[in-house]
Structure formats: C-alpha cells, structure tokens
Amino acid sequence: QIDSARLWGSIHETAQFGATQKGGVRRLTLSAEDKQVRDWFRKACENAGLEVQVDALGSMFGLRKGRDMSKPPIGVGSHLDTQPTGGKYDGILGTLAGLELVRTLNDAGIETELPICICNWTNEEGSRFAPAMMASAAYVGDFTTDDILSRKDAEGVTVAQALDSIGYRGDAPVGRQKFTSFVELHIEQGPILEAEGKTIGVVDSGQGVLWYDGKITGFESHAGSTPMPLRRDALATLSEIVLAMESIAKKHGPKAVGTIGEAVIAAPSRNVIPGEIAFTVDCRSADAAIMDALDRDLRAAVTEIAARRKVEVQLDLVWRKAPTHFDPKLVDAVENAAKQLGYSHRRITSGAGHDACNLNTVMPAAMVFVPCKDGISHNELEDATQTDCAAGANVLMHTVLALAGV
Amino acid sequence: QIDSARLWGSIHETAQFGATQKGGVRRLTLSAEDKQVRDWFRKACENAGLEVQVDALGSMFGLRKGRDMSKPPIGVGSHLDTQPTGGKYDGILGTLAGLELVRTLNDAGIETELPICICNWTNEEGSRFAPAMMASAAYVGDFTTDDILSRKDAEGVTVAQALDSIGYRGDAPVGRQKFTSFVELHIEQGPILEAEGKTIGVVDSGQGVLWYDGKITGFESHAGSTPMPLRRDALATLSEIVLAMESIAKKHGPKAVGTIGEAVIAAPSRNVIPGEIAFTVDCRSADAAIMDALDRDLRAAVTEIAARRKVEVQLDLVWRKAPTHFDPKLVDAVENAAKQLGYSHRRITSGAGHDACNLNTVMPAAMVFVPCKDGISHNELEDATQTDCAAGANVLMHTVLALAGV
Ligand SMILES: NC(=O)NCCC(=O)O
Ligand SMILES: NC(=O)NCCC(=O)O
C-alpha cells in the first residue's frame, strides 16, 4: 500500500505552482510555472534515487533500476502541465503516483526485475501548442521532432523557444528511452464512475479526436445602416456552425461529442458587423466510423451555411487521432490488480486523450481511472478524494509490480 | 461652389493619420493618431482665421466671426475619429467640408450675418468608449461631464486619462459653446442613394439605438469527456442569442436591425467547453414602438435560452437613444439648397447615429447625405466619389449661407 498522506501532500505541494484564486491551477506547458513544477519534480526524483533524463521536447524520465537492466523499464506517469483554468489532478495525479510508488518500493526495500521509469510528458493539454499529447505523439513517430519544435503558440513563440526559455530542451533524442509497457493513472474527467459508485475505472479504450482550425471571412459593415438581408455576418455564421456541431454530435450520440472552444473576432466593435472570425473545433468518438461521419457531416454543414450566407469558411483538419484500443493483456493486469485489492471497478472508455493512447500504438499500454467530483475537469473546480487517489495509486503500483516482477 | 480638389486633398491628407494597409483608417478616439489629426485640424482652422476652443471632453470648435456676434453661430462639422477598421470618409467628410466652406467664404470675401462654427466632436464612433456620440450627448445633457470622464475603455483607461495623455482636455465647460442651429454632412453609410442614383440625401429622421452589455456564465468543462446532455456551453448559448437577435430584427424588418459586434470567451482553449463569454448588442429602429418590441423580444429570447441551457445570462441596457425627427424647417432648408444647386435628391432616414441626432434635441438640426460605394461603411473599403463629396459640401455651404445670412 502506498502512503496516502504523502501522495496527497505532494499533489497539494505542486498545486502551488500556478495556483489560481478559485482553487485551480494555471500552468501552461513550458511556462514559468511549468518550470517550477519541473524543477520540483526533478529534485523529488533525484531524492528518490532516480536518474533523470530530459529529451529534446522536454519530456522528463526518472529511471529506477531493476535487477535486469537488459530490458526496457515499465513506464508510468502522465503530465504536469494544465489548462489555462485547470485543476490540481488532471495529469498531476498520474505523475506523482509514479513518484509515490517508487518511494513506497524504496521504503519497503523492494527490488523489481525490470526497471521502472516515471514520465512527465510535455504539453499533454494542447492549449498552448497544438496538438495535445504533443511529445508522446512525437515519441511514437506521428510527428518529427523538428516539426513539433517549430509549432507556435498564439503569441508566435515556438516550442523550441519556449523549451530554451525555461532550460528544458534536453539532450536525449525523442524516442531513445524505450519501455516494455506503459501504465497511466488519471482522474476520469467524466461522470460515470462517480454515478455508479465505482472506485476504479479499467480503461480499455479511448475516443479518437479531430481538431480543426477554422476561419470565417464575411464582410465588416455598419451595424446601424446595413439592412439585415445585405449582411455577411461572420458571427452569425459561426453561430450556425456551433449549433450545427452540437446537433451533429447529438445525432451520433451518446458516442460522440463536438465543441467549439475558441473563437476570436478580428477588430471587434459594438457597431460593426463582424467580418472575420478565427475558431477551432474539437470533435470525438471512440468509433472510427462515427469519426468519419462527424467529419463528413461537419463539412457538409459548413459548406451549406457558408453558401447560404455568402461568406467564406475555411476548415482545416490539423490533427486526427484514431480511437484507442488498449492492450488486452495489460487491461487484464489492471483489472486483476483492482480485484486483488478489493476495489469496486468497471471497464470504461476514456473521453479525453492521454499520452497512454499515443504510446499504445507502439507498445502495450493501459490506464487506471479514479472518479472526480461531478465529472468536472478542465475547470478550476476539478476535485477528487484522497481515498480515491490512493486507491488508484495502489492499483497502479500492483499493476506495475505484476509487470516488472518482484 | 466649394473647391472640390482642395476638399478632396484635405480628406486624403488626413487619411494618413492611422492609415491601414487595406486603404482604410484606424484612428480610435483620443489615440496617438487622433492627436495627429486633431493637431492638423487645429492648425488648418487657425490658418483659415478661426478661433479654436476645446471643451472639457476634447470637442473642438473653430469659430468664424459673423457681423452679428450677439447671436450663437450656425454649427457645422462632424467627427475625426474612426472605427478600428474604418474608412476615410465617415465623419471626416463632414468636418473637412466645414473647413472647406469657411475657406471658400474667405477666398470669396463673403461675410455672414451670424457666425459659423466648425465642430469636431469627441468619440462619435463609440468603439473605444461607450456610448457612441459621447461628447454631443454630454453637450445636450444626456450625461454629466464627470460621468463621461470616468468611462473606461477595454484596457481600463478612462476618458479623462486618455484626454490628458494627448493634451486635449480643454478649458471650456461642455455646453458653453451655443449654436443657433446645426447642419452635418455625412456619407450615407447605406445603399439607398447609390441604388436610386440620387446625389443628395435630405435626412429627415434617424434610427433610435439600444446598446446592451451581456455576460454568459455557463460551466467550463472537458471537451472530450463531458457528454453533450450535461454541458452548459456559453458559446452555444451565445450562438442562439446571435441567431435570435437576427431573426427578431428580420421579423420587425425592414425597419429594424440587430447585431452582436463583440464576443470574448474567457480563458479559451481548444479542448475546453467555453464557460464564460462577454458580448455586446446593438439594435435599432426609427420607430419607437419597434424599439420597445426589439427590447421585449430580445429579453424574452434570452430568458428562454438561458433557462433551457441552464446558464446565467446578464443583459444590461447601457444606452438608449430615441429615434430622431430632424427640425422640419432645417430639413426644408437642406432640400432647397439641393434643389437650387440642381442635384438629384430624396428624403432619407439615417441608419447610423450622428452627433446631429443628439444636438437636434436642444436646437434645430439637420443632415445632408451623399452616397458611398455599395453602402459600405465601418470597413476599410469605405469609398465615395470626389464629385459626390463636393456636391454634399456645396449643399452644406448653401444651407449654412441661408441660415447664417449673407
Ligand atoms: N486528459 C486530458 O485532459 N487531456 C487533454 C487532451 C484532450 O483530451 O483534449
Ligand atoms: N456615423 C456613425 O457611423 N456613427 C457611429 C455611431 C453608430 O451609429 O453606431
């Protein structure tokens, strides 16, 4: 059993880096606050006897030796970056539970056959740079390191510049650190476990993701003197697209979601009909056929709306991540650990994307979920109980012990 | 007849202050660019022998003496500020036509019975500070000077600070400069004159205006893991409000318009359901009963949408300007001038608000319109011909001569 109070303590200690007034965390990837938590994490790993490596995209790997160093380690961990108005648990729980399990093994003097490696993946959240799970995507070869290094945030700062500015552009080439398998603990970020009173989610699949960048070009004009029928209003166009995305997702529901999270009017003014808007779309399903249908329906709706309103709408797919089917043997291992520890559990699909979803394309991977309050995440009010976090960390540790061998 | 080339020259000379790449002008009120054009205007007035006064809200008055200085002058002019992506004519034409008519009278050695005063009213556009036509509204007593001085722009800068920063907080109390009557020349900013092939619009009325500040409070949540039915999406809510405003305006059309010109998502992120949005509404009609209906219908729609979507929507009326009915005798004077000069003309309602609409509540006022290309305004592509601008300036001059007496 891990030390529940120690795990809880480290979660709340790191929550100070980027703490917000409403009790959440604002720790955008590669920001000054991210540097603070990375420095903390590096030191904690070193104090636990781990050797820390940083790769060329800033991902951090803390290695605990095993008896058999000829085999790659079992990977655990998650991420330490957050949304602009994020919480204390999303990503953090998984990373610090990795640290906690190492501390527990150290205290108990337990050696494992295979080594264990705790990971902190760069830019899992995807809100400063697109796509989300950027570093693990590069790790599995979905993008080249150079491509990712050149991605820009809204201010035009590249990933390379951001890494250099906080001193976290490491020496290790991306992908050099190999793993035998990977297990990630995370809060559910959805309402199912809580609603069913289950402690552990045995994650067997994950939704695929479509991300688009959109731009609407209508025509700026005077709000008072331009008759309604002559308008080419970019915001009214966006409004129809937002509602179309919503009804398309509902039509394919409950196995689909669709969201417009960003929309910026160029040169806005109270008495000017909006002429240009940039926006982004996020839509998802765990079913590949539904993903295709979402893409098709969205494009058809956009084409129809644009033609009818005589505006131009550009819609570029900037990221497509296929649905994930986690490794059946690893999923069984997670389920066995939950069973042995006596926790109530159920199989579950992840609504969110995770680094484990990327890693699963090149190695056996699986995930452990614990409930979060009201299913709320990507919100400063995100919350979870100490008991559930500890239960998740115990399942993680026992899964890792089964995989690494004692 | 005024000097068409000289008028055209001064319009294009001032268009350099805040010139944009697309051929428009960005000259927000009380900005550095506004200071440039004000300095130019002051010097041009002084060179034309006028005495320039600046009032406590920065409005500028250039006085040409008359034979009878016991009576207040005939006021002419408009404004020199522009929208963020505005044109070269909106406001500028009226102000510089005032200068041109004085120069013409000077050249011809014509004295008038009453004095003539060219005005440049502060913040007519209303995009940096609300409301629009701010200084003329204070002039007629709709707001106190102190109230207006304390209004803030989006960055929190007050009107007082902005005036001081460009050195245009004048000594003259607001309202001290009296007028016998006021005539404003302006581009139509709508499509009617051009469509009917008329050169002069004899403006007999103006739309009333309702401005609202709105705020939507939904709930931020994960775009991937939050099921569609559980969402409280602020952007989907705004989208319904935008489309409701559009259909309400169309329902009361053609005598009504409604626009959402500004909408800002708080802490936006691609994979976060928007939780909070600030927006503004502009709706108008020349018919007071329709204005009441617009207000009623909009509020009812907002209440219904907010309740159904379980979000909070705050909608505050921040400005209400009643429809304008210009002084019949002055309107006749404009029409007579157009007739005598042989220009094709028609009576017309102003879709936009103008300082003359405010001034009409305390003195006889009227307006002269000239066509603008495709009815486009509040756009960098705003355009008008030299011939039409000169025709408008001639009608303005002959109206003023009739009112001031030669
Ligand atoms: N776990 C999580 O919130 N990841 C962010 C990436 C996404 O799913 O949008
Ligand atoms: N003339 C003009 O564009 N005025 C701006 C105020 C408004 O009508 O919105």
Automatic annotation (TrEMBL), chains A, B:
Residues reported to bind Zn(2+) 2: 90, 125, 378
Recorded GO MF terms: hydrolase activity, acting on carbon-nitrogen (but not peptide) bonds, in linear amidines; metal ion binding
Protein keywords: Hydrolase, Metal-binding, Zinc
Cofactor names: Zn(2+)
Positions contributing to Zn(2+) 1 binding: 79, 90, 186
The keyword Thylakoid is assigned to this record: no
Domain of life per record: Bacteria
Domain Peptidase M20 dimerisation positions: 208-307
Cofactor note: Binds 2 Zn(2+) ions per subunit.
Pfam families: M20_dimer (PF07687), Peptidase_M20 (PF01546)
SUPFAM superfamilies from the UniProt entry: Bacterial exopeptidase dimerisation domain, Zn-dependent exopeptidases
UniProt xrefs under NCBIfam families: hydantase, PRK09290.1-3, PRK09290.1-5
Family membership noted in the UniProt record: Belongs to the peptidase M20 family.
The name this protein goes by in its record: Zn-dependent hydrolase
Protein source organism: Bradyrhizobium septentrionale
